Amino acid sequence: MKYDAASERNKIVLDAIESVLAELGANNTDFGGADFDGNQMPTDSFLIIVEGRRDIVSLRNLGITAEIIPCANQPVAEFCENIAEMKKTVVILTDWDRKGGILAARLEEQFKNLDVPYETAQREKLLFYSKREIKDVESLYTHVLKLREMLHCGDNSDEFENEN
């Protein structure tokens, strides 16, 4: 089989994304290739903050069952105070465009001031592994499907090179 650097990169990216999904408690077997041994947080102990409804749909389609709350169109300080009352760890999963980065920083600052435990590692990993192809949470589901399809098609390609 001919070595394909693009396919290898796609596999690495897909594995990394699935690992993040596993950390967030994804239970969809279609996306079950990720490592579940101890990296998954109990879904009742945290909630995920996203920007909008389409982000929620994307994460649900990826098998995320944890509570997901959109923060769009709300004053950040008031939103964070309401979240603080829930007494849960917050996973900040805003988009990885400029606007999403600014919002993530504002959320972090507010949660820090309110002594609310928060996580940004999942956002940072998704940003690192998918910023070349997509810029938002909303596109994550279709991106994963595309990666899976490309890898699946690659598996069905000619396994043997013609030596003639």
From TrEMBL:
PROSITE patterns: TOPRIM. Residues 45-126 form the Toprim domain. Keywords: Endonuclease, Hydrolase, Nuclease. This is 5S rRNA maturation endonuclease (Ribonuclease M5). PANTHER family: UPF0292 PROTEIN MJ1624, UPF0292 PROTEIN TK1411. It comes from the Archaea. SUPFAM superfamilies: Toprim domain. It comes from Methanimicrococcus blatticola. GO terms for molecular function: endonuclease activity.
